[in-house]
Amino acid sequence: MQAASAQHTIVIDGVLDADNKSITIQQEIIYTNLSKDTLQEIFLHDWANSFESKTTPLGERFSEDFLKRFYYAKDYERGSTSIKSITDTSENNLTWMRHNQTPDIIKIEMDRPLYPGASFTFQLKYKVKLPSEKFTRYGYHRNGDFSLKYWYIVPAVYDTKWNVYSHKNLDDLYAPLSDYTVNLSLPVDYTLTSEFNQKESTEPNSTTKTVKLTGKNRNEVNLYLQRNNSFYDFQMNGVKLISNIEDNDLMPEMKSVATKRIIKFLENRLGPYPFDKILVSENDYKNNPVYGLNQLPDILRPFPDGFQYEIKQLKSITESYLEKTLFINPRYDAWIKDAIHIYLMMAYTEQYYPDMKIIGNLSKVIGIRWFHAADLDFNDQYFLGYKNMARLFLDQPLTEPQDKLVKFNKNIANAYKAGIGFKYLEDYLEDDNILTDAIKEYYSNNTLKLTGSKQFEKILNTLTPKNIDWFFEDFIPTNEKLDFKIKSVKKRKDSLEITIKNKRNNYMPVSIAGLRDGQLVSKTWVTGITGRKKVKIANENIDKLVLDYDQNIPEINRRNNHRNLKGIFNKPIQFRFLQDVEDPTRSQIFYIPEFEFNVYDGLTIGSKFYNKTFIRRDFDYRITPSYGFLSKKLIGSAFFQYRHQIADYDLYQIKYAFSGSMFSYAPDLLFRRFSPSVDFFWRPEDLRSNETQRLSIRSVNVFRERDDNNPVETPDYSVFNVRYRYSDFNLLDFTSYLFDYQIAKNFSKLSTTINYRKIFLNNRQINLRLFAGAFLYNDTEKDGDFFSFALDRPTDYLFDFSYLGRSEETGLVSQQIIIAEGGFKSQLEFPFANQWITTLNANTNIWNWIYAYGDAGFVKNKGTSPKFVYDAGVRVSLVADYFELFFPVVSNNGFEINQPNYDEKIRFIITLSPQTLIGLFTREWY
After folding, report:
1. Nearest CA to 581 among 292, 921, 349, 926?
2. Mean pLDDT confidence for 842-855
3. Phi/psi at 346 (nearest 5 deg)?
4. Which terminus, N or C, of the chain has the lesser number of Cβ atoms within 10 Å?
5. Which GO MF terms are attached to this record (predicted)?
6. C-alpha span between 1 and 871 (Å, rounded)
7. How many other β-carbons are positioned within 10 Å of the β-carbon of residue 151?
8. CB-based contact 276:218 (threshold 8 Å)
9. Which backbone phi and psi does 618 adopt, to 5 degrees?
């Protein structure tokens, strides 16, 4: 544990060149070795150099998160560090290098050992080219302002080892305590805002001024340089709050009352803030906001302006309060700070806004207030944020390094799990003061020190009489879910014998409550449940038993927590218009009108009945009876699905499903399709990887009404289908391949599809697709080409594709294509293959969303020689794979632009599925 005095002294003399967006720096670092080890080298973080190219760890992180703006940025928009020299006090050059070729980590080799307690002074001369703020919200702004974070070189932390790691847009630089002096020269028309002590000096008639900043025991220097100062401040209890958090035009008096209340709350819960200024910015808040409905535009926001402002300030001030005073490794031990942060936010809301709901004032609106969502408290959002990832099987341990977390876990779910974990622990301890006292003692003992979660664990263990090993051994370091169930209840003369089942592999406790006429009669904590455990409680005319009555345990399934001892139904059935949040006390059935369109049924209107809540469930269904106004027929579909998670990685999930549908496939002709299936899913241990594997086994059974005027030989058929798909979908490179085997009464076929996409450093993009398919046997000549491979428009006999008009051969809807099988865009003389087919599709970008495409291949039919086919043209990709236009230029048909009816040759891709489009916006989060 380090002393509260600063470990190092850092002096920075900088000159801002506002026009060229750069800072020239001369820096002196007096490095003091407070460890017990003798050091041979010193490591520095140079995170300003993280922006120097597309291939830095930061650039790769942006690409992993599908953030295109950095990869496609202009060179002048990226930042860098140009180091002129690193010397000792005698101006002798020191040996230094980029550690392991990492651009933002510097290693200095000393010519003599640095013994414990000794100091080493060295100077750096370098120039920082500031990046655009559009990447991280820090850098230069279009209006000429500057927000500076990680803009200078800083020593790394040594605590028996060097803690060095790259900038990955996680706001988690681990820097040691230092005494700072910063002299920054800048144009006179700028105002500099910081939380350091400031003195300005300006020479007469000079266009520049120098601002001197001093601060002791600091771990970072964040500066805001603005021509029009956006910051305001309030003085309270010896601490000045400096902020530019948007205030929704609140009166200064209301803002002052809110911020004073926040500071007083934190001082009571933690202890006094050791500095005289605390700075919070809109940039910091937007990088880590309070996620939820409060992020909606002001006109739609359901919360009162005062609450909206106060919760934003609470989030930002609490975060700054902790960041500036508790020096915890933010990449490898972040959970303890997150837990304190979220726990304090929940406590503040409970104390000052106990009646605030998760949907704010909407909970009072007629119609909306009938939903279960209207019953949820504001603090319930933290549980829902965590449960969302647990239900998706994407939750990760709280001890997982921050750069290994899925983005949703990094920004939301892990911090929420840590916070509600504290509420779970507080409930279990049955004394609200124990956890509160432990947090306060931990803060008091470790203010302005290097610390970590182990120190908190020791303090808590000394304050509680209960065994809390389960919290630090099961809850924190694993992603084990919680799911308890009341298995059975036996009534004895004066007691109830309850069997509780722990459906998961952990040793975490659960409470069981007895209710009488809706009132709490008893509450008992049950520990050590492995498998099943029996517990006896007094029977005081109890009519209902509830596990986790106060809902403080972050269970992934609360639907099995209730047991009525009187009455027939354990949970009443509830029909609810529109989707709702899951209500564990009801068996919910949702319904919603549904409108669709195809050219045969026309406009279809129906009602979808389903059980899917906003957060995914293991079992879900939807039943949609509909009516087609053109066909004048009753149609519809049904779908049932169960997901079974069997592991965290490798073969991790098996999905069982059954679907059935009935629609028109031609004028006045219906088809019925029934398909049972089972799918096996594989994924790597690294959840940030987009690599997936899927094996699908299904039976597709189709029954078509017969057309007396145009009879088909095989109106009814069944196809057994096995598919294996591998995919590694990333922004810069994408690889996938599919093997498909089908067998039916009259044919058997095998095919493969390989996709590859690469975006090069010069922003040139190439897309390649290879398709090859062959019949193992084929006795379908009597059906024409219905079961054949298609060159440009598959017949879709498995009814997998969303055609607007699947049987149309003319008109606009016939020009719809789905890139499958041959993948051609032009309609050629040989559109089908009943023996084998091989095609290659390629395209590359010409300018922005305009591409040149080309297709080539061979089509082989029985009794004829293979035919070479080709086409080429222009692809306009407005939304890739979702809305695209294809303009043929040349093909086997000749030069198509000059041919008649060219407008009928234009093809289009359109996707109307909302879920598919939502995937475009959520892929960077999961």
Report:
1. 292
2. 94
3. -65, -40
4. N
5. metallopeptidase activity
6. 70
7. 25
8. no
9. -65, -40
Residue 832: pLDDT above 80?
Answer: yes
Could you give the CA distance from residue 649 to residue 646 in angstroms, rounded to a whole number? Answer: 9
* DSSP bridge partners of 869: 857
Residue 78 · residue 53 · CB < 8 Å: yes
Count Cβ neighbours within 10 Å for each residue of 316-349 and write b for 16 or more, e otherwise: bbbbbbbbbbbbbbbbbbbbbbbbbbbbbbbbbb
* Bridge partners, 891 (sequence order): 871, 894
Return d(Cα 166, Cα 161) in angstroms, integer: 16
C-alpha of 872 from chain center: 39
Cβ pair 22, 129 in contact under 8 A: yes
Q: How confident is the model at residue 232, as a pLDDT?
A: 93
Here the tokens at position 694 are 């899927």
Residues 611-637, mean pLDDT to the nearest whole number: 93
Task: Tell me what pLDDT residue 295 has.
Answer: 65
Name which of 300-314, 335-349, 563-577 the model is least confident about: 563-577
Whole-number pLDDT of residue 383: 96
Q: 432-446 and 335-352 helices cross at what angle (nearest 10)?
A: 130
Percentage with pLDDT > 70 across the chain: 96
What average pLDDT does the structure give for the chain? Answer: 92
Do residues 536 and 521 lie in contact, with contact meaning Cβ atoms separated by under 8 Å?
A: no
Cα separation, 24 vs 17, whole angstroms: 8
Using alpha carbons, select from 647, 637, 718 the residue that is nearest to residue 670. 637
DSSP codes of every residue in 294-348 = GGS-TTT--S-HHHHHHHHHHHHHHHHHHHTTEEE-TTTSTHHHHHHHHHHHHHH
Over range 575-590, report the average pLDDT: 90
Which amino acid is it at 595?
A: F
User: Which pair of structure tokens corresponds to residue 922?
Assistant: 């959520």
Q: Tokens 């709050």 — which residue? A: 241
Q: How far apart are CA 781 and CA 843, in angstroms?
A: 35
Q: What token pair was written down for 595?
A: 């409108």
Nearest by Cα to 740 from 757, 758, 725, 762? 725
Buried b (16+ CB within 10 A) or exposed e, 86-98: beeeeeeebebee
Rounded to an integer, what distance in angstroms lies between the CA atom of residue 703 and that of residue 797? 11
Rounded to an integer, what distance in angstroms lies between the CA atom of residue 415 and that of residue 342? Answer: 7
DSSP 50: G
Which one, of 246, 249, 280, lies nearest residue 262 by Cα?
280
**What is the distance between the alpha carbons of residues 854 and 871, in angstroms, rounded to a whole number?**
6
C-beta separation of 681 from 693 below 8 A? yes
Q: Tell me the backbone φ, ψ of residue 393, rounded to 5 degrees.
A: 60, 35
Assigned token pair, 62: 């942006």
Span 883-911, mean pLDDT? 92
* pLDDT over threshold 70, residue 520: yes
Dist CA 897 CA 1 (whole Å): 76
Average pLDDT for 108-131: 95
pLDDT tens digits, one per residue of 63-78: 999 999 999 999 999 9
Q: Which residue has the higher pLDDT, 577 or 693?
A: 693
SS3 (DSSP) at 764: coil
Provide the token pair at 574. Answer: 């509830």
CA atoms within 13 A on the CB side of 157: 22
pLDDT at residue 831 greater than cutoff 70: yes
* Alpha-carbon distances, residue 287 vs 76, 147, 185, 326 (angstroms): 24, 13, 28, 20
What's the gap between Cα 383 and its chain centre? 16
The pLDDT of residue 293 is: 61
In one-letter notation, the amino acid at residue 689 is: S
DSSP classification of residue 372: G
Question: What is the reported pLDDT for 2?
Answer: 41
Could you give the CA distance from residue 509 to residue 248 in angstroms, rounded to a whole number? Answer: 44
Question: Helix (H, G, I), strand (E, B), or coil: what is residue 444?
Answer: helix
540 neighbors 566 (Cβ within 8 angstroms): no
Neighbours of 744 (CB within 10 A): 18
